[in-house]
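dude i think i finally got it to work??
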Amino acid sequence: MTDPGRTSILRAARKAFARESYDAVTLRGVAADAGVSAALIVKYFGGKEALFERVADFTEAAQLLLAAPNERLAEHAVRTLVEYRRENDQDLLVRVVFAAGKSDERARIREHFRDQVTRAFAARLTGPDADLRAGLITAQLLGLGALLAIDKAGPVAAATPDTIAGLYAPAIQELIH
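look at this
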């Protein structure tokens, strides 16, 4: 079972670090947005640097997305992305899109994403252009994640995970081989 306080803190921290520079983000501000005390953030994460590192960490996302054999990897990744969004009201990957700025902390988020997600996909692939194909796979998953975040009442929101996976996963599976 997920701790709601911890989840609220991470959600608020992701928004804060996406909107503002590292220096501008405060534990008090994150705590206020999360509806908890700053002391609870310190209890769970130890401080701002550790909280940032947790926000920038994509290890769990990669593990969830890659938890299937290559023959079913695309279907599994798409289904996992959809179900995670619906169950947690947040995306596994899209926060990297907010790291497009030039600051050092945003560069660290992009590096973590590349190391922990894109390279993890590349390591699973065989054949030529594994790094390129892995980048294209993660781009497609990011696009789906963004659409799920935007389409709150349209056809994608109404579609079942099976339907979405059935339509979207074949293009990704082509990149897996």
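The chain has ten helices and no strands.
im so relieved honestly
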